[in-house]
Amino acid sequence: MTLTDVATAPDLLRLVAVPVFAWVAVRDIKTRRVSSAVWIPLSLLGAVLLVWDGWLAWTAGGTAWTYEFLLPTTVSLGFVVPIAYLFWWIGGIGGADAKALLVLALFVPVYPEYAVGSWTFPLTSMPVEAFAFTVLVNTVFIGLAAPIFLAVRNAAAGRFTGVMFIGWPVSWDAIPETHGRLLETPDGPSRGGLDLDALRMYLRWRGLTLADVRDDPDRYRDPATLPDEPNPPTDGAVTAAVRGDGGTALEGEGEDEGESDLETDSTTDGLEVSTDDPWGAAAFLEDIEGSAYGTRPAELREGLEVLATEETVWISPGTPFLVPTFLGLLVALGYGNLFIGPLF
């Protein structure tokens, strides 16, 4: 048996996506960060394979060009690409997640076929064999397992709450090394609390640790304790290299118990400080370049109030989207479409 008996050359080269997506899935779990440079080689190779497939379909004659190549490619590029952009635009997925779907739409638009003995994979087919669409459907199905897993885990531990389908409790000292979103406010549970990456950005900007905040929350709640020269906030990644100054106070702190300079808004080194800004949340968001993942000052303040006192807090770990995407790719290669496949 030759390689051409197993699959076409373009389809064999498309298997490169499997180890690449396995690697980015692991990165997504550990850091929630994937470099854009990962997608460039796959995009370039995908464009070459697309042209190659088009040429093979054109020379094959019959319906190969229109039905087996042009139609599924149009569905992949014309449907999956806009869906990926829309999900990213509304904040449903991250930039790396959207890029992964875009690359898949280009890299594997048409169903590949692999012969192993008497078996041909994928095992099932589709009326329109748009492979990238199948991966997207599988990703959604596999992603739905996450809330079920969380609910079962919490129920087994006797934790019944309105957020048991989207999170679990962790100790406060695990927060600095944890990805996800806080599910608590001073008023109780919340489904949309503080992003923990934004929290790390804030603490690094101030040169503090969460332990510092808990040791003296009254001190750091006062915006007069903002540093003279804030530190780089980084992007909030757990593994980012940071510089800290211990939360150096602004000039004038402590003078006449803070009554002279703190009664009105002031500016130090270009940083606007207001007595109406507990924790310096608004000052932080105004000072940094870009957005702290859409965090609002009130959201940051509420998160800090909870983390300054609570020993255990509920967080939503979120779903590392590239993990179900990788699993969806494997299922698509071996079985096909989890939703439509059983019907054909």
Helical coverage, percent range: 40-55%
CA gyration radius, whole angstroms = 25 Å
Strand pairing plus helix content: what structural class? mainly alpha
The mean pLDDT is 84
Q: Order of helices and strands, N to C?
A: HHHHHHEEHHEEEEHHHEEHHEH
Morphology: elongated
Number of domains: 2
Within the CATH hierarchy, at the fold level, what is the topology of the largest domain? Four Helix Bundle (Hemerythrin (Met), subunit A)
| CATH architecture call of the largest domain | Up-down Bundle
Number of strands: 9
The rounded distance between the terminal residues' Cα atoms is 29 Å
> DSSP helix count?
14
Strand coverage percent: 5-15%
Largest sheet, strands/sense/barrel: 3 strands, antiparallel
Transmembrane segments: 38-57, 69-88, 100-119, 131-152, 321-340
Subcellular location: Cell membrane
Protein name: Peptidase A24A prepilin type IV
GO molecular function, one term: aspartic-type endopeptidase activity
